[in-house]
Amino acid sequence: MGTVILLALTGLGLAALYFLVASGLSLVFGLADVLNFAHGLFLGVGAYGTWWAAGNLPGAGPDGFGFVVAVAFGVAAGTLVAVLVELVLIRPLYSRTIEQVLVTVGLSLAGVALLQATWGADARPFPRPDWTRQVTGILGAQVPNGGLLLIIAAVLVLGAILAFLRWTRYGLVIRAGVENREMVTALGIDVRKAFTLVFAIGGAAAALAGALGGVYFGTVSPGQGGSLLIFAFIVVVIGGMGSVVGSAYAAVVVGLVQQFVNYYGTSGLGDICVVGLLAVVLLLRPQGIAGKVATA
Protein backbone atom coordinates (compact mmCIF):
# COMPACT_ATOMS: atom_id res chain seq x y z
CA MET A 1 0.00 0.00 0.00
CA GLY A 2 2.85 2.35 0.86
CA THR A 3 4.36 1.81 -2.58
CA VAL A 4 1.09 2.71 -4.31
CA ILE A 5 0.74 5.88 -2.22
CA LEU A 6 4.35 6.84 -2.98
CA LEU A 7 3.92 6.27 -6.72
CA ALA A 8 0.64 8.18 -6.75
CA LEU A 9 2.06 11.23 -4.95
CA THR A 10 5.32 11.30 -6.90
CA GLY A 11 3.24 10.93 -10.06
CA LEU A 12 1.14 13.90 -8.99
CA GLY A 13 4.35 15.85 -8.35
CA LEU A 14 5.48 15.14 -11.90
CA ALA A 15 1.98 16.01 -13.14
CA ALA A 16 2.19 19.33 -11.30
CA LEU A 17 5.45 20.14 -13.09
CA TYR A 18 3.89 19.30 -16.46
CA PHE A 19 0.84 21.43 -15.68
CA LEU A 20 2.90 24.50 -14.77
CA VAL A 21 4.52 24.33 -18.21
CA ALA A 22 1.36 23.32 -20.10
CA SER A 23 -0.95 25.95 -18.57
CA GLY A 24 0.88 28.78 -20.35
CA LEU A 25 1.01 26.86 -23.62
CA SER A 26 -2.72 26.23 -23.41
CA LEU A 27 -3.58 29.87 -22.69
CA VAL A 28 -1.36 31.18 -25.48
CA PHE A 29 -2.76 28.80 -28.06
CA GLY A 30 -6.34 29.32 -26.92
CA LEU A 31 -6.27 33.09 -27.28
CA ALA A 32 -3.49 33.89 -29.74
CA ASP A 33 -3.56 30.65 -31.77
CA VAL A 34 0.23 30.42 -31.40
CA LEU A 35 2.13 27.15 -30.98
CA ASN A 36 5.05 28.50 -29.00
CA PHE A 37 7.95 26.07 -29.33
CA ALA A 38 10.14 28.55 -27.44
CA HIS A 39 8.11 28.07 -24.26
CA GLY A 40 10.86 25.89 -22.84
CA LEU A 41 13.18 28.89 -23.00
CA PHE A 42 11.05 30.67 -20.38
CA LEU A 43 11.44 27.62 -18.14
CA GLY A 44 15.21 27.63 -18.65
CA VAL A 45 15.46 31.34 -17.88
CA GLY A 46 13.41 30.86 -14.70
CA ALA A 47 15.59 27.95 -13.58
CA TYR A 48 18.91 29.65 -14.26
CA GLY A 49 17.63 32.98 -12.94
CA THR A 50 16.73 31.31 -9.63
CA TRP A 51 20.04 29.42 -9.58
CA TRP A 52 22.03 32.63 -10.20
CA ALA A 53 20.03 34.73 -7.74
CA ALA A 54 20.45 32.21 -4.91
CA GLY A 55 24.21 32.69 -5.04
CA ASN A 56 24.60 36.29 -6.15
CA LEU A 57 21.54 38.46 -5.46
CA PRO A 58 21.57 40.34 -2.13
CA GLY A 59 18.84 39.00 0.12
CA ALA A 60 18.47 35.78 -1.87
CA GLY A 61 19.73 32.36 -0.89
CA PRO A 62 19.00 28.64 -0.82
CA ASP A 63 17.05 28.68 2.46
CA GLY A 64 14.07 30.40 4.03
CA PHE A 65 12.90 33.75 2.70
CA GLY A 66 16.07 34.01 0.63
CA PHE A 67 14.86 31.13 -1.52
CA VAL A 68 11.53 32.88 -2.05
CA VAL A 69 13.44 35.95 -3.24
CA ALA A 70 15.53 33.81 -5.61
CA VAL A 71 12.42 32.15 -7.07
CA ALA A 72 10.72 35.54 -7.44
CA PHE A 73 13.75 36.80 -9.38
CA GLY A 74 13.70 33.74 -11.65
CA VAL A 75 9.96 34.10 -12.30
CA ALA A 76 10.37 37.82 -13.05
CA ALA A 77 13.20 37.05 -15.51
CA GLY A 78 11.12 34.40 -17.30
CA THR A 79 8.12 36.73 -17.47
CA LEU A 80 10.21 39.54 -18.93
CA VAL A 81 11.65 37.26 -21.62
CA ALA A 82 8.14 36.03 -22.49
CA VAL A 83 6.84 39.60 -22.89
CA LEU A 84 9.82 40.58 -25.06
CA VAL A 85 9.35 37.51 -27.25
CA GLU A 86 5.69 38.38 -27.80
CA LEU A 87 6.31 42.05 -28.53
CA VAL A 88 9.36 41.66 -30.77
CA LEU A 89 8.98 38.30 -32.51
CA ILE A 90 5.41 36.99 -32.23
CA ARG A 91 3.29 40.12 -32.62
CA PRO A 92 4.38 40.77 -36.24
CA LEU A 93 3.58 37.15 -37.12
CA TYR A 94 0.02 36.67 -35.86
CA SER A 95 -2.04 34.72 -38.46
CA ARG A 96 1.22 33.53 -40.10
CA THR A 97 1.46 30.04 -38.63
CA ILE A 98 4.44 28.69 -40.55
CA GLU A 99 6.56 31.73 -39.74
CA GLN A 100 5.55 31.45 -36.08
CA VAL A 101 6.71 27.85 -35.92
CA LEU A 102 10.02 28.63 -37.63
CA VAL A 103 10.73 31.61 -35.38
CA THR A 104 9.84 29.87 -32.11
CA VAL A 105 11.75 26.69 -33.01
CA GLY A 106 14.78 28.78 -33.95
CA LEU A 107 14.48 30.81 -30.76
CA SER A 108 14.27 27.61 -28.71
CA LEU A 109 17.50 26.30 -30.24
CA ALA A 110 19.21 29.67 -29.87
CA GLY A 111 18.09 29.91 -26.26
CA VAL A 112 19.60 26.55 -25.36
CA ALA A 113 22.83 27.53 -27.13
CA LEU A 114 22.92 30.83 -25.22
CA LEU A 115 22.43 29.10 -21.87
CA GLN A 116 25.18 26.61 -22.76
CA ALA A 117 27.54 29.39 -23.81
CA THR A 118 26.88 31.32 -20.62
CA TRP A 119 26.88 28.59 -17.98
CA GLY A 120 28.15 25.49 -19.77
CA ALA A 121 26.45 22.37 -21.07
CA ASP A 122 26.83 20.31 -17.90
CA ALA A 123 24.09 20.09 -15.30
CA ARG A 124 24.73 22.19 -12.20
CA PRO A 125 23.61 21.44 -8.63
CA PHE A 126 20.52 23.48 -7.82
CA PRO A 127 20.44 25.43 -4.54
CA ARG A 128 17.39 24.29 -2.59
CA PRO A 129 16.16 24.50 0.99
CA ASP A 130 17.19 21.65 3.26
CA TRP A 131 13.58 20.69 3.99
CA THR A 132 12.95 19.97 0.29
CA ARG A 133 15.62 17.24 0.47
CA GLN A 134 13.69 15.50 3.23
CA VAL A 135 10.61 13.29 3.14
CA THR A 136 7.19 13.36 4.79
CA GLY A 137 5.36 10.26 5.97
CA ILE A 138 1.90 9.96 4.36
CA LEU A 139 -0.17 6.78 4.88
CA GLY A 140 2.95 4.68 5.29
CA ALA A 141 4.82 6.21 2.33
CA GLN A 142 7.91 8.44 2.61
CA VAL A 143 7.15 11.15 0.06
CA PRO A 144 9.85 13.64 -1.06
CA ASN A 145 8.98 17.17 0.02
CA GLY A 146 10.08 18.56 -3.35
CA GLY A 147 7.21 16.74 -5.06
CA LEU A 148 4.73 17.96 -2.44
CA LEU A 149 5.93 21.53 -3.02
CA LEU A 150 5.22 21.14 -6.73
CA ILE A 151 1.71 19.84 -6.06
CA ILE A 152 0.90 22.78 -3.78
CA ALA A 153 2.33 25.27 -6.28
CA ALA A 154 0.35 23.78 -9.19
CA VAL A 155 -2.92 23.89 -7.22
CA LEU A 156 -2.31 27.53 -6.30
CA VAL A 157 -1.43 28.46 -9.89
CA LEU A 158 -4.52 26.67 -11.24
CA GLY A 159 -6.73 28.46 -8.71
CA ALA A 160 -5.11 31.83 -9.49
CA ILE A 161 -5.52 31.39 -13.27
CA LEU A 162 -9.17 30.33 -12.94
CA ALA A 163 -9.91 33.23 -10.58
CA PHE A 164 -8.21 35.65 -12.97
CA LEU A 165 -10.16 34.35 -15.96
CA ARG A 166 -13.48 34.43 -14.10
CA TRP A 167 -13.39 37.60 -12.03
CA THR A 168 -11.16 40.17 -13.79
CA ARG A 169 -11.82 42.33 -16.82
CA TYR A 170 -8.84 41.07 -18.75
CA GLY A 171 -9.74 37.55 -17.77
CA LEU A 172 -13.17 38.01 -19.33
CA VAL A 173 -11.54 39.45 -22.47
CA ILE A 174 -9.25 36.42 -22.69
CA ARG A 175 -12.15 33.98 -22.22
CA ALA A 176 -14.17 35.80 -24.85
CA GLY A 177 -11.18 35.90 -27.18
CA VAL A 178 -10.73 32.15 -26.86
CA GLU A 179 -14.37 31.64 -27.84
CA ASN A 180 -14.56 34.22 -30.64
CA ARG A 181 -11.58 36.49 -31.24
CA GLU A 182 -13.18 38.23 -34.23
CA MET A 183 -16.22 39.28 -32.19
CA VAL A 184 -14.06 40.71 -29.41
CA THR A 185 -12.10 42.74 -31.96
CA ALA A 186 -15.33 43.94 -33.57
CA LEU A 187 -16.48 45.28 -30.18
CA GLY A 188 -13.47 47.62 -30.18
CA ILE A 189 -11.41 45.74 -27.60
CA ASP A 190 -7.66 45.74 -28.24
CA VAL A 191 -6.85 42.04 -27.93
CA ARG A 192 -3.15 42.71 -28.48
CA LYS A 193 -2.80 43.78 -24.85
CA ALA A 194 -4.51 40.56 -23.84
CA PHE A 195 -2.04 38.63 -26.03
CA THR A 196 0.90 40.22 -24.21
CA LEU A 197 -0.69 39.56 -20.83
CA VAL A 198 -1.29 35.91 -21.71
CA PHE A 199 2.35 35.50 -22.76
CA ALA A 200 3.40 37.10 -19.45
CA ILE A 201 1.22 34.68 -17.45
CA GLY A 202 2.48 31.72 -19.45
CA GLY A 203 6.08 32.85 -19.04
CA ALA A 204 5.64 33.28 -15.29
CA ALA A 205 4.14 29.78 -14.91
CA ALA A 206 6.91 28.24 -17.01
CA ALA A 207 9.61 30.12 -15.08
CA LEU A 208 8.08 28.91 -11.81
CA ALA A 209 8.17 25.38 -13.24
CA GLY A 210 11.86 25.88 -13.98
CA ALA A 211 12.62 27.04 -10.45
CA LEU A 212 10.61 24.30 -8.72
CA GLY A 213 11.79 21.74 -11.28
CA GLY A 214 15.31 22.51 -10.13
CA VAL A 215 14.21 21.67 -6.60
CA TYR A 216 12.52 18.48 -7.82
CA PHE A 217 15.44 17.19 -9.90
CA GLY A 218 18.23 18.72 -7.83
CA THR A 219 20.04 20.06 -10.89
CA VAL A 220 19.57 22.57 -13.69
CA SER A 221 20.75 22.15 -17.29
CA PRO A 222 20.28 24.04 -20.59
CA GLY A 223 18.22 21.29 -22.21
CA GLN A 224 15.86 20.77 -19.29
CA GLY A 225 13.19 23.06 -20.71
CA GLY A 226 13.10 21.27 -24.06
CA SER A 227 12.63 17.82 -22.54
CA LEU A 228 9.78 19.00 -20.31
CA LEU A 229 8.21 20.90 -23.20
CA ILE A 230 7.63 17.66 -25.13
CA PHE A 231 5.44 16.23 -22.37
CA ALA A 232 3.79 19.62 -21.82
CA PHE A 233 2.65 19.62 -25.47
CA ILE A 234 1.30 16.09 -25.00
CA VAL A 235 -0.61 17.30 -21.94
CA VAL A 236 -2.07 20.26 -23.86
CA VAL A 237 -3.23 18.09 -26.76
CA ILE A 238 -4.75 15.42 -24.52
CA GLY A 239 -6.43 18.03 -22.32
CA GLY A 240 -7.76 20.07 -25.21
CA MET A 241 -6.04 23.00 -26.90
CA GLY A 242 -6.91 26.19 -25.03
CA SER A 243 -8.37 24.51 -21.91
CA VAL A 244 -6.42 25.12 -18.70
CA VAL A 245 -8.67 22.76 -16.72
CA GLY A 246 -8.25 20.12 -19.42
CA SER A 247 -4.49 20.51 -19.15
CA ALA A 248 -4.75 19.90 -15.40
CA TYR A 249 -6.72 16.68 -15.95
CA ALA A 250 -4.34 15.51 -18.67
CA ALA A 251 -1.25 16.31 -16.58
CA VAL A 252 -2.56 14.09 -13.77
CA VAL A 253 -3.20 11.23 -16.21
CA VAL A 254 0.21 11.57 -17.87
CA GLY A 255 2.12 11.86 -14.59
CA LEU A 256 0.42 8.85 -13.02
CA VAL A 257 0.78 6.69 -16.13
CA GLN A 258 4.50 7.45 -16.34
CA GLN A 259 5.19 6.70 -12.69
CA PHE A 260 3.19 3.48 -12.40
CA VAL A 261 4.20 1.99 -15.75
CA ASN A 262 7.87 2.85 -15.30
CA TYR A 263 7.85 1.23 -11.86
CA TYR A 264 5.89 -1.93 -12.61
CA GLY A 265 7.21 -2.27 -16.16
CA THR A 266 10.60 -1.38 -17.57
CA SER A 267 12.27 2.01 -17.52
CA GLY A 268 11.03 4.16 -20.39
CA LEU A 269 7.89 2.12 -20.98
CA GLY A 270 5.84 4.81 -19.25
CA ASP A 271 6.95 7.38 -21.82
CA ILE A 272 5.92 5.03 -24.63
CA CYS A 273 2.52 4.51 -23.00
CA VAL A 274 2.02 8.27 -22.79
CA VAL A 275 2.70 8.62 -26.51
CA GLY A 276 0.30 5.74 -27.13
CA LEU A 277 -2.33 7.50 -25.03
CA LEU A 278 -1.82 10.63 -27.13
CA ALA A 279 -2.42 8.61 -30.30
CA VAL A 280 -5.61 7.09 -28.86
CA VAL A 281 -6.95 10.51 -27.88
CA LEU A 282 -6.18 11.96 -31.31
CA LEU A 283 -8.00 9.07 -32.99
CA LEU A 284 -11.05 8.88 -30.72
CA ARG A 285 -11.41 12.44 -29.40
CA PRO A 286 -9.25 14.84 -31.43
CA GLN A 287 -10.51 17.87 -29.49
CA GLY A 288 -9.07 16.46 -26.25
CA ILE A 289 -10.61 15.76 -22.85
CA ALA A 290 -12.05 19.21 -22.30
CA GLY A 291 -11.85 20.63 -25.82
CA LYS A 292 -14.84 21.57 -27.91
CA VAL A 293 -15.75 20.02 -31.23
CA ALA A 294 -14.92 22.40 -34.09
CA THR A 295 -17.91 23.58 -36.05
CA ALA A 296 -18.02 24.77 -39.60
TrEMBL record:
GO biological process, one term: amino acid transport
A Pfam family the protein falls into: BPD_transp_2
Assigned GO CC terms: plasma membrane
Domain of life assignment: Bacteria
Subcellular location as annotated: Cell membrane
Membrane topology value: Multi-pass membrane protein
InterPro entries for the chain: ABC_transp_permease, BCAA_transport_permease
Transmembrane segments: 6-27, 34-53, 65-89, 101-121, 146-165, 194-217, 229-256, 263-284
Keywords carried by this UniProt record: Amino-acid transport, Cell membrane, Membrane, Transmembrane, Transmembrane helix, Transport
A Gene Ontology molecular function term of the record: transmembrane transporter activity
Signal peptide: none
Principal subcellular localization: membrane
Family in the record: Belongs to the binding-protein-dependent transport system permease family. LivHM subfamily.
Name of the protein: Branched-chain amino acid ABC transporter permease
Species per Swiss-Prot/TrEMBL record: Micromonospora orduensis
